[in-house]
Amino acid sequence: MRKLILILLLIPWFVTPAYADFPYEQAAEEFGTGAMEQGLTEGERSVTGSLQLDGRYDVDGALHRLVKALIENVKSEIRRNIRFSAELIVLVFLCALVVIGTEGHKAGQFAEICCVCTAAGILVGSFDSIVSQTTEAMYRLSDYSKAALPVVFTAAAASGAVSSAGVRFAAASFAMDVLMSLSQSLIIPCIFAYLAIVLANSLFPNQLLAAVGKFIKWTATTLMTGMTLAFTAYIQITGLVSSSVDAAAVKTTRTVLSGVLPVVGGILSDASAAVLSAAGVVRSCAGAFGLIVVCVICVGPFAMLSVKTLLFKMVSRIADSVQIDRLSGLLSGVGNAIAMLLGLLGSCGIMLFIALTAGMKAVSG
Question: What is the C-alpha to C-alpha distance for residues 251 and 248, in angstroms, rounded to an integer?
Fold first, then answer.
């Protein structure tokens, strides 16, 4: 009886509380999820929200703020371009009045050429600013891919996608570098060349110049479309081939552990499942955060390019309705050039979007 009482008195001294640490907190720190929030401005952070170390991320709230930011950017761009649109419309009607007043005389053609030159002078500075903002957004996407893709694909590899994660990460990094090189060395120069051809054809209409302009536009558009489709197909093919291998490898590892070591092996198998689950939580949350960041980076330039494209198309239709063909051709061509810049930015964003989505689709065994 004394021994029993002594044991009962001593037991509390040997009992200590056990603190369970959530594996995904440690996994998030190991994978460096904090790098995904670096480089964002305060305004962008207010939209994306914060990616917590415990794997929680408010996707619904971020999407709501993203849509609100898009609407605000579109409204801001419309207000900013009202005066610019009015100037172009006034120029179109002044040109129409001059042409009507000099109808049947050569002076009418000279007056229309002077209006085209005036419009070109107004548009030069504006277009250069548009190109600068577009390329800056593309460089930001490229820089962000270097921070986000390693986190997502490392978590994907830790969750079981050992083969597919490495292949897809290499493809995504290579494709982003190639697109940036192509945009600087070929696509943007093609857009400037197209704009120069459009201006020359507006001043001195010529079928050869029009054909060259169409060919340059087709070349730039085909390069962007072809590269995006090729990248998407490559990601899908590598995913189909390597994901089955990854799933089989994870399942085999668990079976071997449980079979060779009946008790300890079962514990290790359960532990590996917990680790894979933690990596999967980090992968999914980090991937969702990365997708939102890509949209946030693109939302401002996308609103700007979209509004300006519609603006030039609208003014071009007005010029066409009053039969000012030269000015209508110039404005339509500028709208096409801005649309190509929008497509270039969209290609960059879509490729990064697809890469992050591919990283999120890791096997779970």
Answer: 5
> Taking the CB of residue 305, how many other CB atoms lie within 10 A of it?
25
Residues 77 and 69: beta-carbon distance below 8 Å: no
Give the span between the Cα atoms of 342 and 116, in whole angstroms: 25
DSSP letter for 22, please: P
Closest by CA to 341, choosing from 312, 302, 313, 307, is 302
Structure tokens at 194: 């197209």
Q: How far is 365 from 360, CA to CA, in rounded Å?
A: 14
Angle, CA 97 vertex, CA 95 and CA 102 arms, to 5°: 95
Name the pTM for this structure: 0.78
Tokens of 80: 């900013």
Report the number of secondary-structure helices (H) and strands (E) in the chain: 10, 0
Q: How far is CA 77 from CA 104, 140, 332, in A?
A: 41, 21, 20
Residue 297 Cα distances to 43, 133, 221, 357, angstroms: 11, 11, 23, 17
> H-type helices in 37-183, by residue range?
42-48, 59-101, 106-158, 162-182
Contacts of residue 360, defined as CB under 8 A and 6 or more positions apart, other chains included, come to: 152, 156, 283, 284, 287, 288
pLDDT bracket for residue 255 (50, 70, 90):
very low
User: Can you read off the two tokens belonging to residue 66?
Assistant: 């993203």
Tell me the two tokens of residue 231: 């990248």
- For 53, 56, 242, the CA distances from 25, given in Å and listed in that order, are 5, 10, 28
> What tens digit of pLDDT does each residue of 38-56 get?
777 888 888 887 776 555 6
108 burial type by CB count under 10 A (0-12 exposed, 13-18 middle, 19+ buried):
middle
**H-helix or E-strand spanning residue 188:** helix 188-203
Task: Please return the burial class of 192, using the count of CB atoms within 10 Å of its CB with bins 0-12, 13-18 and 19+.
Answer: middle
- Assigned token pair, 4: 């029993």
Q: How confident is the model at residue 365 (pLDDT cuts 50, 70, 90)?
A: very low
What is the separation, in whole angstroms, between the first and last Cα of the chain?
Answer: 54
pLDDT tens per residue across span 142-166: 888 888 888 777 777 766 666 667 7
How far, in Å, CA of 305 to CA of 38, rounded? Answer: 26
